[in-house]
Amino acid sequence: MKNHLWNMFANINNGQLAKRSFILHQKKKICEKFLDVLWNEGFILGYKNYFTNIKTFKSDFTKIFLKYKNGKPVINNIKPITKPGRRVYYTAKQIWKMNSKNTLLVFSTNKGLKTLNECKKLKLGGELYIILS
């Protein structure tokens, strides 16, 4: 399995450090789901898929628009928790003990990618993907 999600994290982090207004990334479904979470939480301005073959609507890449506040990047730190060699899972009981005031915790659950608050509302556990601050 290729690490498209981890590559996207690195691209976003590098784009923010270079103060780019947008970055380009290869289109994958898991990356789109994660971008939806980032957009819903206000960490990016949005994203757009670009089609190279109009007849089949095959999209090769996604343009991710990065967000800044007062000239500083909104995403200061991206820290992937689970890795291909070391998976980290939390049960619903363990999630209730977690606190995230200034960070965004994203979990992979059987209902899709969810934030910590959504997991608490739905009483779900899952694999902790990333911490954003």
Descriptive report:
It is a single chain. The model has no long low-confidence stretch (mean pLDDT 88). The chain has two domains: 1-74, Ribosomal Protein S8, Chain: A, domain 1 (2-Layer Sandwich); 77-133, Dna Ligase, domain 1 (2-Layer Sandwich). The chain is globular, with a radius of gyration of 15 Å. 29% of the residues lie in helices and 38% in strands. Strand 2 (44-53) and strand 3 (58-66) form a beta hairpin. 21% of the residues are buried. Strands 6, 7, 8, 9 and 10 form a five-stranded antiparallel β-sheet that branches. A three-stranded antiparallel β-sheet has the order 1-3-2, with helices on one face. The protein has 133 residues and is α+β, with helices and mostly antiparallel strands.
